[in-house]
Design brief:
single chain; alpha/beta; 6-stranded parallel β-sheet; 4-stranded parallel β-sheet; 16 helices
Length: 329
């Protein structure tokens, strides 16, 4: 999807760079880069992470809210002060959902106008690998003796705000006591917090039914999600989870924590399932199994997930396709 986006930009004679804020040691480095490449505009993702570079920035910029900046960083007085300077001086502010836009307008009610805020749904593209076998990969990697594992995938970076440990005890208990075929497969890289990552590894390594993979190529990850009984989300904060949208487009049921960002993406019992506690998650996940078992019984548990997946599949292609998002075409 990124390459299609870049091709469209270059077709309009627009050339750019993708940089991480940590690539610049200080403001002098950043300003030298802007001058060297004659940068005409900046698209900054995440008001706080990019904030130190954007204060007094000599180049016009737009800010795309990521979710954590609005939901978490805004609670810290120092972070909020920096972000306030950034949003006031931005040419345009972008939110993925109406709820994110309303949150931003509430946070900075005296500083920004509705005209400055744009709501643009993120574009998604799914190209799952055709050569990746999820069950074979898991059996090979973890020496599983289960012939047909029921996979529940949780794909996110390993950091506190994504709360991947929220479900592991309950899921392991379900695996041991009720369904030995069920596995929670957590996929994602560690991010910065070494103490949290060390604790995460210590806990997950000793829990039966919980598997951790530090990372997969995008095509293989999408194949894993496609082959899963459900895509699980455990986040404490989301702007709009692209992984949830990808799962919908792939036809995989989604079961997500009931937070504002997920409620903006999911209509409960229509395009996905929402939960508040690990115990409720278990009941929600159990309803998703028949979709990927190819169960021919037309009982409540079979019909409900099928209709839910059918409804969810209709949403991303129309609301979040690259053609719909890029340049409004």
């Amino acid at each position: 999807m990124f390459f299609a986006f870049r091709k469209q930009l270059r077709g309009r004679r627009i050339f750019g760079f993708i940089k991480d804020p940590i690539d610049f040691q200080n403001l002098d480095d950043f300003y030298s880069f802007l001058d060297l490449y004659q940068v005409a505009a900046i698209l900054a993702v995440h008001a706080y992470h990019c904030g130190r570079l954007l204060q007094d920035c000599p180049v016009p910029y737009a800010v795309v809210f990521g979710g954590t900046d609005l939901n978490v960083n805004s609670r810290n007085a120092d972070h909020l002060m920096m972000m306030t300077d950034v949003v006031i001086n931005a040419s345009v502010l972008v939110a993925f959902t109406e709820s994110m836009a309303k949150h931003a307008l509430t946070l900075w009610a005296d500083d920004i106008s509705e005209e400055k805020m744009q709501i643009i749904s993120p574009g998604i593209g799914v190209m799952p690998s055709t050569s990746f076998s999820s069950s074979f990969h898991l059996k090979h990697l973890f020496s599983l003796d289960c012939e047909e594992p029921e996979i529940y995938t949780l794909a996110s970076a390993i950091r506190p705000v994504k709360d991947p440990l929220f479900l592991v005890q309950a899921f392991s208990g379900w695996h041991c006591a009720e369904n030995s075929k069920a596995y929670l497969v957590i996929v994602g890289p560690p991010l910065k917090d070494e103490a949290y990552y060390s604790s995460f590894q210590d806990i997950t390594l000793r829990l039966p039914g919980v598997l951790y993979i530090p990372g997969l190529p995008q095509g293989d990850l999408q194949a894993l999600i496609r082959d899963s009984s459900a895509l699980i989300n455990s986040s404490l904060s989301e702007g709009l989870s692209v992984t949830l949208l990808e799962a919908m487009a792939l036809g995989t049921p989604v079961v997500a924590r009931s937070i504002a960002g997920n409620r903006a993406a999911i209509v409960h019992y229509e395009t996905g399932l929402l939960y508040d506690t690990p115990q409720v998650l278990k009941r929600r996940a159990d309803r998703c199994i028949p979709v990927h078992r190819n169960d021919s019984r037309l009982d409540f548990n079979t019909v409900e997930p099928f209709l839910m997946v059918t409804s969810a599949r209709r949403s991303p292609p129309y609301c979040h396709s690259p053609k719909c998002t890029y340049f409004g075409t």
